[in-house]
Structures are given as C-alpha cells and as structure tokens.
Design a protein that fits this description.
Elements (H helix, E strand, L loop, with lengths): L1 H46 L9 H10 L4 H4 L4 H8 L7 E3 L7 H10 L5 E5 L5 H8 L5 E7 L2 H6 L10 E5 L9 H4 L7 E7 L7 H9 L18 E6 L11 E2 L5 E6 L3 H6 E2 L5 E5 L23 E4 L6 H14 L5 E5 L3 H5 L20 E5 L8 H9 L6 E5 L2 H4 L8 H4 L1 H8 L2 E5 L16 E5 L10 H11 L8 E4 L3
Parallel strand pairs: 1-2, 2-3, 3-4, 4-5, 5-6, 6-8, 7-9, 8-10, 10-11, 11-12, 12-13, 13-14, 14-15, 15-16, 16-17
Length: about 500
C-alpha cells in the first residue's frame, strides 16, 4: 500500500515538472512568434517601397540622364523625383534650340538649372535671334556644338569665343566649309570635327593660294579647310570629287581617327599626312575606280593605323577586288578589322601580283580580330577556312554578325562542309562570337565550351534549335561542363 502511494506521488511530481517545462516552452514559442511577426511586418513595409525608390539620389540622377528627353514628365511622378531632376545639372545640359520656339524664358530657366555643367547645343535653321542670343551668353561652357545648314547662325557666332568647345558638327548642306574659318581661331580646345553635306571644293585664300603655287620645296599645311594642328578626330561626309589638294598639303600631326563617307576621296587621301592616325573608316556607295590610285606609292601615312572599318560597297566586282587589295597594302599595321561580307572573298582569295603576299589580307601581319558584318554562311569558301587553319596557333579572334534577313532565314546549311564550319572556326580561333547567326543542332554536337559566345535571335521563330535543347546538347556532347557554354540570347 505504501509503495503504491509513493509511486503515485512520484508520477504526479513528474507530471507537474513536465507541465512547468511545457508552459515555459510555450512562453518561449509565444515570444518567438511575436519577434517573427515584427520581422515580417518590417519586411512588408520595406517591400512596399518600389525598388527604384531605394536607390540613392546620385544613381537615380544617372538613370534620368539616359532618358533626359522625358525630364518634364518624370518630374511629375513624385516630389523626390522632381527634386533629383532639378538638382542634377547634367540633365539640363543638352540644349536643342528648335525646342524653344518663342519661349526664351524657358530656355533661360533650363540654362540656369544646368548651372556650370558643360553644354551640348544644337542650332538649326531659322533660330529666333532672341533665343540664339540667350544661349550664346553661355558660349564659354559649350563643349559640343551642332550647326545645321545656316550661314546666318555661323555668322552670328563670329563675336564669341568657345574655350571649352571640343566637338563641332556642321551640316553644310551645299555651303562651303570656308564659312567656318573665322571660328577656328576662337576654339582652342577643338578636337573633333565632323562635316556633313560637303559639296564643292574649299576656297583658297589669296595668301594660301600664292604660298602653295609658288612653293618649290616640300609643301606644308593646307591651311584653309579646318584647324589641322589640334584635331584628333575628323569625319568628312559628302561630295569631294572636285577637291584638288596638293600632295602632302594637309598635315594633321595629332589626328587619331579619320572617317570618310564620300564619293571620291582620292585627292584628300593623297594629301593628308597623319603620323598618329590609328583608326580609319571608309564607306561609299559609288564606283570606286577613281579612288584606287590614292593608295599607290608610299604607305607611310597609314602605317600606324590599327583599326579599320572597311564598309565601302561598290557595285563592280572588279573594283571591289582592287579596293580590298589596296586597303591591305596601304594599311599594313592593322590589328582590328571590321569588313562587310562582300569583301570576304576579295580579301582571302589568291593574289597573282608579283611581290605581294599570297592573299591580300596576309599583308596585315599583326591582325588580331576580324569582325564580319552581314555574315552569310552560304558564301563562305575554303580560302577563308584555309587561312584560319594557317593562323591556328596565333590567337586569332573572330566575330560574325548576321543581318536581320540572314538571321531570320529558315534554311540552315545542308552540306557537311558547312555543318562543321563553326566547329572549324572554334578550333582555329582563340574565341568566336556569333551575333544573330542561324544555327542548327548538328553544328553544336561536338562544340567545346571554352571559347564560344552565342548571341542569336529567338530560336523558335526561325525554326532553329530551342535554347533548352542547346544546353542539353552541350551536356551530352561537350568535353566541358555545360555551364561553361556562355550562351546569351537577345531579341532583334
């Protein structure tokens, strides 16, 4: 009897201790619930703030710079956005006078908001004098100036000095570039000059003409076109067939980039002396027979050119071949070339001329990268492939870009040579970058994942392999893990 009583009391004591433990645990759970509830409430409050409103003002201002044309609309979104827009001077630094017709007070307000930020100013035809006078009061901080077809505006610039002007774009539209001569002496910082709508030959002043005609020694600078001593970038766009410049008459000692978009640059190319020229871009839509002679003789003017954009597109095939060869011989130091697909065969076909390399492009002995625009795999021949194989161990980089029509073409290469073409490209090059190039699954069955970068259009829409299928193929057949295959898909 006593033993049973003792057992019962012991069991009761155990139950009370257990009850106390459970009550204490329950209290702990209640505390944890309360704490977690506070955390959730804070997260809910934080998530209620749009992500863009969590950005600091400085970063928000840089975003608004990308869409500055919508600045007035953005200012109505919120008080904070309005304050950021009004307190970011660079948002107001781009001034197009055609947008202020009859509102000089608004122009003054925008210039005031830009504070002391360098300005980009566009002056169009028939600008009201009142607005032109307002913006020219800030001539000391205009860094970029665009002038469109107005001799009146060019004349109005005469009394002003532009100490900060670095980039000048002038759409001449049948005007002579000589109109700008008085301006150059007041633009000491000018580095970049672009002429559009060139038409007619620059006029020689009497003194310059006398100097050029009477000089018996080496001709010096041809002074009457642009400020030759300070320019680092020059772009000429328009008709130049009547330009008759003496050889070596245009000295451009610090010029680094030259872009010519015209019908006959022969005289100009023969005239320039630019020892620091590194980038050359040439495009043209007319017959180029007359231009080939400009590259004859010494090529010392162009020996330092490292980047070349070969975008000319003459209609005659014989001219295309001749031009491609001349470019290769005239620019022997090229390291980075961008060419149109139509010049692939002229550049890589055998050249029979005595004393020339086996193929024209072999004259570019330091070539590191080649970008082919409007790439068409159906027009690739064995000359190009064999040339790549010969340079297999030189670390060559290849970039192929298809045009919109080529990228959306539904048919994909049927024969075995073309089916293995991209595999050959990758084996022969340090890297291959494909942009909008149509692909089919057989091309990627054995592709290594080390160097291929793929930028292509939506694959389903062009009857090509699905992106998930591409990954599956890489996992099944590649010698490297599939996650090393850097496939980036973008929409045209």
């Amino acid at each position: 009897m006593n033993s049973e009583l003792l057992d019962a009391r012991a069991k009761l004591a155990h139950l009370k201790r257990r009850e106390s433990e459970l009550v204490e645990e329950l209290l702990d759970v209640h505390k944890a619930i309360a704490a977690q509830t506070l955390v959730i409430d804070e997260l809910i409050k934080a998530s209620a703030v749009p992500p863009i409103n969590r950005l600091p003002n400085e970063l928000l201002g840089k975003i608004f710079l990308l869409i500055r044309s919508e600045r007035e609309k953005l200012a109505y979104v919120s008080r904070r956005w309005r304050d950021v827009i009004f307190d970011t001077p660079s948002i107001w630094s781009e001034i197009n006078l055609s947008c202020y017709g009859g509102c000089p007070e608004l122009l003054k307000l925008h210039l005031e908001r830009s504070r002391q930020t360098p300005l980009t100013v566009s002056l169009d035809v028939d600008q009201p004098q009142s607005e032109l006078d307002v913006v020219l009061l800030h001539a000391n901080r205009i860094r970029v100036l665009r002038i469109f077809s107005s001799p009146y505006i060019i004349g109005r610039l005469a009394p002003f000095t532009f100490p900060a002007l670095e980039f000048l774009l002038v759409d001449l539209h049948s005007l002579f570039p000589d109109l700008l001569l008085p301006l150059y002496s007041r633009t000491p910082a000018l580095k970049c000059l672009r002429f559009q709508g060139l038409c007619g030959q620059p006029l020689l002043s009497g003194r310059a003409a006398t100097q050029l005609s009477s000089s018996t020694g080496p001709r010096s600078t041809y002074p009457n076109i642009f400020p030759t001593q300070s320019l680092t970038h020059l772009s000429l766009d328009g008709v130049m067939d009547c330009w008759t410049l003496p050889p070596d008459s245009v000295h451009l000692p610090v010029l680094e980039s030259l872009k010519l978009r015209n019908n006959c640059p022969m005289s100009f190319l023969a005239a320039i002396v630019a020892p620091k020229l590194e980038e050359f871009e040439f495009s043209m839509d007319f017959d180029l027979v007359s231009v080939l002679g400009a590259f004859d003789g010494s090529t010392s003017t162009f020996d330092n050119v490292r980047h070349i954009d070969f975008a000319a597109s003459p209609s005659e095939k014989v001219v295309r071949y001749g031009l491609a060869q001349k470019f290769c011989y005239a620019f022997p130091g090229v390291r980075h070339a961008k060419i149109h697909m139509q010049y692939l065969h002229p550049l890589f076909s055998t050249c029979q001329a005595v004393g020339h390399p086996h193929t024209p492009i072999d004259n570019w002995t330091h070539l590191e990268t080649l970008e082919i625009q409007d790439f068409d795999v159906d027009k690739v021949d064995e000359d190009f492939v064999n040339w790549l194989k010969k340079r297999k161990d030189l670390g060559f980089h290849l970039k192929l870009i298809c045009g919109r029509r080529t990228a959306n073409h539904s048919s994909v290469m049927p024969d075995a040579f073309k089916a293995g073409l991209y595999q050959t490209f990758q084996e022969c090059c340090a890297s291959v970058e494909l942009c909008c190039v149509p692909v089919s699954s057989p091309m990627y069955l054995s592709v290594s994942a080390n160097s291929l970068q793929l930028f292509t259009s939506p694959l389903r829409q062009s009857n090509q392999v699905d992106p998930t299928d591409l990954v599956a193929l890489a996992r099944r057949y590649s010698t490297e893990p599939a996650d090393l295959l850097r496939a980036q898909l973008w929409t045209l």
